[in-house]
Amino acid sequence: MTHERFPLAQAVHGEAIEQETVIGIKREHQNVWFQLNIYPLPSPQENAPKKLFLSLAHEVSEAVERGRDLSQTAHYDALTGLPNRALLNDRMKTALAHCTRTGQILAICLLDLDGFKPINDTLGHEAGDEVLKITANRLLENMRGNDTALRLGGDEFVLLINDLKSEDECVLVLNRILASIAKSITIGESVCTVTGSLGVTLFPNDPSDPGILLRHADQAMYKAKEHGKNDFEMFDPTLASRHRANRSTLARIAKAMQKKQFELHYQPQINCATGRMVGVEALIRWNHPVLGIRSPGEFLPLLEKDDMIIEVGNWVIQEALAQWRLWKAEGIDLTIGINIAARQLLHSGFGEMLKTVHASLPEGEANPLELEILETAALEDMNSVARLINDSRRLGYTYSLDDFGTGYSSLAHLKHLSVDALKIDQSYVRDMLDDPGDLAIVQGIIGIAEAFDAKIIAEGVENIDQIMMLIGMGCEIVQGFAIAKPMPGDKISAWLTNYNSNPIWQTARDSYPSRGQFEMLVIEVAHRHWFEQIERAYRDGAIEKGRMPTLESYDQCKLTSWYLGEGAAQHGHHSLLHAMDVNHRKTHEKYQQLCDQVARHDGISASLTLKELNELNNTLIMAIHQLRFKESR
Description:
TIM Barrel; 19% strand
């Protein structure tokens, strides 16, 4: 006899029993079940083992089979024979436990058929049922024995794919399944085709519980639908975590707006030619009750992707106007630059809002607002933005193109948009004294602004050398830490009272070279960049590595080409030119000596040579300055 479990029964393996026990026994090789009642017999001696008494065995085959049928109906899909939703949680737990035990990867997949409804509608439900049965068989054919395919209902299936060693292996399995599903199906005289959209999440990369894992697979499946169907989409736990964090941050921003935790700081813009402050840029700050002042870089990029930026942007305009009215009462009249996000600019109600703002201005007062827009924002709907600029300009608004040169800058865009000013991005201003490419870009933007009769403003100036260079190239309006940091509106009046322009700025206008000598500036910056690469390599462990970077030789150097060509033609009568060339040649010879010492890991000699090279470089830069100064007088 073979012992097997059946409902409400428990097996007994020969151990002594203390009470009546019921077990089920199946006759070997036959589908006949018996119920046996086993009783303990009292023993005449107190410590003697109890004997077993076997009562009458009842045949219960019919009841067992009826129970099996009920279980099959409750837990398996009648159409496809696959496990149904009732078994989903159990199969998920089993698969997750197996994955945790083996250390392999489990793929939880949600499959939805594409194009199934038209088959049901045109060929009838019997044809639809046949498609579902064939699809179920194809799923089973492409899955291994320890994998599970379940039908949730309709044309939705769940796949649990076990023992995957990598994401790449999972991709192979999924592609095989999708290719199998997409094969044509013949039903009677009709040939039809369905495809599948699969959403997948991988455990333990996605360490969630069964319900959340299925929800993640469902989210990924809808992305697969959106991206064209007949494909799969992997759920990204990192991205999901970021989305949750973003939603939390947006909720905090909304609460901060309600609690009036936002404020505006204003950064002065100075015209170096006149020494006067001509405007300010309004910059939003979050005055957090615990974390203190938070800069816009911490929250604005996220806010600009949400419609909440429209509410915040409108608040900025109203707040700036309120501050302007206070300044006016003190006799301070300034233009206020306000950054306009893409969503706000392209919002259908933006134009009407500008009209309402203008109507609130005192009669006869010039509009103080200069709206700063990004070129990339304008490109989203160039014609609408151009109309908006033209319409609002009639109300006195002016426009500047912010961060010019960082996006898809085009002369055609400037012609179409007709902005009043260009702002040179701080990334170019910051490095223009060390990077010839950035210097050329700054010079090019200044030239473009002049060609379009637009005001030019340089952002992010940090030192006097940058200001002097900008003035010499024709950019006279600057803002940045070299002038002042952004400050609350009530501090502007005191700052303006104590502000004095730097008299050296006028010297810069008179003594810096004309644009025709700009190539000499580029040569100087190129040489600065050449020497900066040497210093950086030395700081980064050139001695340990035993090598220095391969840089231009004397014959390849731009300074040599300029000296033999345009330099000789323009400045050949100056003794400084010959002295500069001699010094330049020595600089390259000294660098080759440094390379040899580094290759020998001779750190002591290399340090001395680097010091001598620095002195030669400074002498060369001074000679270039002297030559340029003489020519500019």
